[in-house]
From TrEMBL:
Coiled coil: none annotated. It is a multi-pass membrane protein. GO terms for molecular function: hydrolase activity. This is Uncharacterized protein. It is found in: Membrane. It comes from Marinicella pacifica. It comes from the Bacteria. The chain crosses the membrane at residues 23-43, 50-70, 82-99, 106-123, 135-153. Belongs to the TMEM86 family. InterPro entries: TMEM86B-like (IPR012506). One of its GO terms (cellular component) is membrane. PANTHER family: GH04784P.
Length: 155
């Protein structure tokens, strides 16, 4: 989980100058890797296999819905990068929801908040830029990170 925090912090730094396309792509990669690092940590704690299939179907349906929402706004490399990113978010959500980690409730809350914050980043970047995206997205993101940190520190 520590690697996930470090990669998230890296993504935060890279997102400071949001108008720079190359920095945005680099931040996207950092956050994608953060989602994968968190997923690895959740899997490492053990998973509830009996919940895995239904959880995966529901979460991936939601990720496909997000992609459908975003698709007409995506151009070039983003038509490939965004579905890869959504897959990483989906994996993080699935593994959070089926982990056997003793702080699973904190993990699920943190993962869901982190994923929701990404919707506001996508809305800002691709659909409808505006202050409200940051007003809602940033507190969701930082609250999500705090829940994940609480799970790490409580374990």
């Amino acid at each position: 989980m520590t690697l996930g925090f470090a990669l998230s912090f890296t993504g935060d730094i890279l997102l400071i100058k949001t108008s720079d396309k190359q920095l945005f792509l680099s931040s996207l990669l950092a956050f994608l890797l953060a989602h994968l690092a968190y997923s690895w940590a959740f899997i490492d704690a053990g998973i509830k296999r009996y919940d895995l299939m239904i959880t995966a179907v529901v979460v991936m349906a939601a990720m496909i819905g997000c992609y459908v929402w975003l698709f007409r706004h995506l151009k070039g490399l983003m038509k490939t990068a965004v579905p890869a990113y959504l897959a990483a978010i989906g994996l993080m959500l699935i593994t959070a929801m089926v982990t056997r980690h003793p702080m699973q409730q904190l993990i699920v809350t943190g993962a869901v908040l982190f994923a929701l914050s990404d919707l506001f980043v996508a809305r800002q970047r691709f659909v409808s830029p505006g202050f409200n995206n940051r007003l809602i997205g940033l507190p969701l993101y930082y609250a999500g990170q705090l829940f994940l940190l609480s799970a790490l520190l409580s374990a």
